[in-house]
Amino acid sequence: MTAFEANFDGLVGPTHHYGGHSFGNVASTGNAGQPANPRAAALQGLAKMKALADLGYRQGVLPPHERPAVEVLRSLGFTGSDAAVVAAAARQSPQLLAGVSSASAMWVANAATVSPSADTADGRVHFSAANLQNKFHRAIEHEQTGRTLKAIFGDESHFVHHPALAMHPAFGDEGAANHTRLAKRYDTAGVELFVYGQQHWGGNIAPQRYPARQTLEASQAIARRHGLASERTVFAQQNPAVIDAGVFHNDVIAVGNLDVLFCHETAFAERESVYAELDAKLGELRLIEVPTRAISVDDAVRSYLFNSQLLDAGNGRMRLVVPEECRQQPAVWAYLQSLLGQDGAIAEVLAYDLKQSMRNGGGPACLRLRVALTDAEAAVVHPGVWLTDALYAALTDWVSRHYRDRLSEADLADPHLLPEVRTALDELSRTLGLGALYPFQRSGGKSR
Predict the structure, then answer these.
(1) Spatial distance between the Cα atoms of 117 and 374, rounded to a whole number of angstroms
(2) Across the 448 residues of the chain, what is the mean pLDDT of every consecutive 10-residue run?
(3) What is the reported pTM?
(4) CATH topology assigned to domain 3-442
(5) Which end of the chain, C or N, has fewer beta carbons within 10 A?
(6) Annotated active-site residue in 5, 174, 277, 409
């Protein structure tokens, strides 16, 4: 049986704006209030997807969520027609309207944790939707995330879907952004590395400035429900000091694929023991540890060097997909060039312009959910989401017709925005063949 890693990227939504909703994410808060360009954001993401598909990688698309989330506003006491609900929220609580209008679901590394069939007790691929309970604008995502994943990975003989964990700080779960699967091959049992920010019950070290969004208790619960063997799981605490430096998820300071782990030397609280356990359970880890003397944590955060995609290039080597911002940090770019001068794990570095996403705090790794699939499993994935030349052309045309090229927080009160979004998403779900994916479609598309 053969297997491969597929990347399913989140398509940036029409309400992409810089609301600064994510305390602890330096780029998000630093660019708050500036106008965004949703059209450019979506086209930049699509261009990266197409480039990787052209290199031969299996690339899928995950559709955006409906925003503004009118039903969330209704649950908070706003009444009347959909237009009246949005208008009242804009008058009474513009910050709330901005939160329920966030396009943050585009960062699908936070959508779920995925364990491939080679690792699980029942031999099926397991998905656990992330509760993202630390941030209001993200805590409202998991129900639609679950519907979307079930629509795409619907065959119950191959796929299992778990709901989000309890909405409590003890079970703060941020999905695959704090999870890395390492293996010798995609079709053999691997080692799943769960990285947590703090232990809710009994922990004694935690960041002081910014929140630790992932808990040990959440990571342990995911491993249990996915049926992972203890001898093939590793739980590692993220260094609290780097969380306080703006490393809000592990994927801002480390990335791994197959038997390669690329990380900063400050990534983990107990790095030597983490490396030793991974090496023992994996059977020889290939480690690329970046020292502080080469790249500071601040430069790593500014460039999002580690929020990159590490892709199998064949012959035991990797391609590293980084944001264009890495070129703009001399120390970072010099280090990457030095890696290429060695006969090591990194064969090629590819830089892409994702400025719109980066300014909101998400790089290449944030935009994709990795799913290792066997050929049989891939055959029953909903076919309409695989990126082909035809689908890329259709999606770029769709974005160009439906997305605005400028959006500020004030524009979220525009009564035309919600109908624009629904018209766009209705067409998108037909293009992808996903049927009535959104609640507004199941209600006949009528405003209340």
Answers:
(1) 8
(2) 94 89 53 84 97 98 98 97 97 95 96 98 98 95 98 98 97 97 97 96 84 95 98 96 90 96 97 98 96 95 95 94 94 94 87 90 92 98 98 98 96 97 98 96 64
(3) 0.95
(4) L-arginine/glycine Amidinotransferase; Chain A (3.75.10)
(5) N
(6) 174
